[in-house]
Amino acid sequence: MLNGRTVAVVLCLAGLVVGSGLSQQRTLANDWNDFLHFTKIGRFDLAKGYGQAILQGNPDPVALLELTQANPQGYELAMKVVDTSNDPELASVAKQLLAVIEQGRFELRSDPQVIVDEIKRLSTTIRGKINAIARLKNSGEYAVPFMLDAIADPSRRSELDNLLEALPQIGRNAIRPLAASLQMNNDAVKAEVIRALGQIGYPQSLPYLKYVAEKDASTELRSLAAQSIQKIDPQMSNAPAAAMFFQLAEKYYYHDESLAAQEGPSFANVWFWDADANRLVREEVDRAYFNELMAMRCCEWSLKADDQFGLSIGLWLAAFFKAEATGVAMPEYFGAQHAAALTYAKTAGPEYLQQALLRGLNDKNAAVALGAAEALATNAGENSLLYTVGPAQPMLQALSFSDRAVRYTAAIAIANAGPRQPFNESRLVVQNLAEALALNPDAISGDWTAELAQAYALRAVQALLKLGVSRNPVIDLSLAQAALIGATRGEQQDLQVLAGQTLAYLNSPDAQRAIAEMALSDAYDMAVRIEAFASLANSAKLNGNLLPDATVDQIYDLTKSDETEPDLRAAAAAAYGALNLPSQKVKELILDQSKS
């Protein structure tokens, strides 16, 4: 909130912004200069007033930009205010002014008419050409489509030499649209693009040029591409395009500064060649995942170059999971029917998923690691889960990862696969399953919600039960006994039932007594008690009677009483019989019901 004095200044200044467009421009200049002046001398109340007056006047962003270009020191002062001011109101005003200035910068560099005019100026005077090249360089990637249009236009042949001279001088920001334009069918223009990429000289052009050298139908273009590669880096001449695209994808994935999107607004551009329009088009995407999207595109080109280059599949999956983790909706060019990353991951082989998992683990990126682990958990068997990537076994490493969701998912996946061969990390499988089962939903915070905790608990106990049913020889189920007993005493009925069923496979008095406690207690739902008696019967069949006499007597009392609910009585009787007790008790039960 602005204080009363600042508000008064704003109201006073607002009344002055009237009259012709010329007076508005003059007022904007005066207000900007006064904002800077009072900021510099420490009169922040007045500075805020002038700043607010500018903002409320809805200033022309380009006009405000031009004022900063005429006074670079003032622009630096405004930036310093945002970063260091102890006055939050002044910092906020300065930040809003800088946003307007950046909008002006974007409008100026991307204005099609300005770009078209500057391209025409290339063929005027020497000074005109120099100024035009400087402004086209400032426009960067936005200038490229219009320059290619002019180069392809037969009616502008007289301008061609100047156009070809200017194109590579746009520099690094021209590479992405130029690389996308290599898909054109106009060999003459394509040849100039290849030459320009070689003259610009940045290595990010190499895989695109090598793709032309390997795949293009034109011998001349293949030769030109090889020459441009020589100009950029002769040592890469023999490298395959697929590997070069993979390396570029990795640089995008790890946000290499040399590949940063052109400075400007909150979005970045992904460039495509529109074959129907025979022209470059751009898709605006959020900067939050621009690098990941470009990594995915490079992986796709890698596979176009060599469909057997499997490393690109693993990296593509990792980049997709990483992009989704930003929480930003996927870009429009994906299309409405584009599947989620997990869908693609589930169809990928374990080799590629293990690559993505290892990358996520090494990078400490939980989103990537979890996505790959979840996909592996869906359908991978023992050999796939314990797959080795170099010296590493990613799924076993995941059991010790810092993120609990990754650990739990890895443990669930391995348990469900039912491994039959011993491995050193087998104890970690049970420990993670037990931890997931015992986690108190009320004691968690952050992204780990109660619903997520309950979901993992259910998956964990199901995995433990599967280990018990299969009598798994590798994973020691008894290590989860305490967590299983705790689950029988919890509040979730499905966990109570599954925990009781799992405890039946433990040859342990405590396990069998916990099942009996659940079956006998009125505190449990009737359906849970009936299921518990079934688990008790199974425990008795597998392990014999491990119950104290008092507990056996309780079961007997339920069985003989005609007041016991019929289904519960039948379940108790089945459990009682499975205990294989001495015949004396059975004789008493028979005689008690006798009418003779």
Describe the structure.
There is one protein chain. It contains 32 helices and 2 strands. By secondary structure, it is mostly helical. Among the domains are: 4-110, no CATH class; 112-248 and 261-288, Leucine-rich Repeat Variant; 504-596. A two-stranded antiparallel ribbon has the order 1-2. α15 (241-253) packs parallel to α17, α17 (311-324) packs across α19 (350-363) and α19 packs antiparallel against α20 (366-379). It is elongated. Mean pLDDT is 90; it is low at 6-11 and 13-25.
Number of strands: 2
CATH class of the domain at 112-248 and 261-288: Mainly Alpha
Q: Helix count, per DSSP? A: 32
Contiguous uncertain segments of 5+ residues: 6-11, 13-25
Largest sheet: 2 strands, antiparallel
Helix content: 55-70%
Topology (elements, then pairings):
Blueprint (H helix, E strand, L loop, with lengths): L3 H11 L6 H20 L3 H13 L4 H10 L1 H13 L3 H23 L1 H10 L4 H14 L4 H9 L7 H7 L8 H7 L5 H14 L5 H10 L3 H14 L8 H13 L13 E8 L4 E8 L3 H16 L5 H14 L16 H7 L2 H14 L2 H14 L2 H4 L8 H5 L5 H14 L8 H13 L11 H20 L11 H8 L4 H11 L5 H12 L5 H18 L5 H12 L5 H13 L4 H10 L4
Antiparallel strand pairs: 1-2
Helix pairs in contact: 1-3, 2-3, 2-5, 3-6, 4-6, 5-6, 7-8, 11-12, 12-14, 13-14, 13-15, 15-16, 15-17, 16-17, 17-18, 17-19, 17-20, 18-20, 19-20, 20-23, 23-24, 23-25, 24-25, 24-26, 25-27, 26-27, 26-28, 27-28, 27-29, 28-29, 29-31, 30-31
Which keywords apply here?
mainly alpha, Leucine-rich Repeat Variant
